[in-house]
Structure prediction request, 102 residues.
Amino acid sequence: MAVESIFYFKNQKTVIDVGQARGVILLAGCQNNLNISHYTPLQVKMSITGYGRASKEQMQQMVKSIFGLKEIPKPDDVADAIAVAYCHSSSSKFYSNLNTKT
Prediction:
């Protein structure tokens, strides 16, 4: 399981909701004995665009391009989730986890 680390949050009104949702997601992963990998936004951006300071729009365009989509996935969180999954699938953590699951 791959999740993006939260290190800074602009909207203080939603940070609690995001934190609670993240807690539930991590709990579900632990309860199902999943290996959980955490990636910073910088790591995800580097994986998708090759540039750690890529904008949200650049990330969305690259997700669209990499997966040959006709349009950018909506809502924005979908493109973010795809980017995290892509980052994980291209990481050494993903391949080492595959080898331990045989």
User: Anything to note?
Assistant: The mean pLDDT is 88. The chain has one domain: 2-100. The radius of gyration is 14 Å.
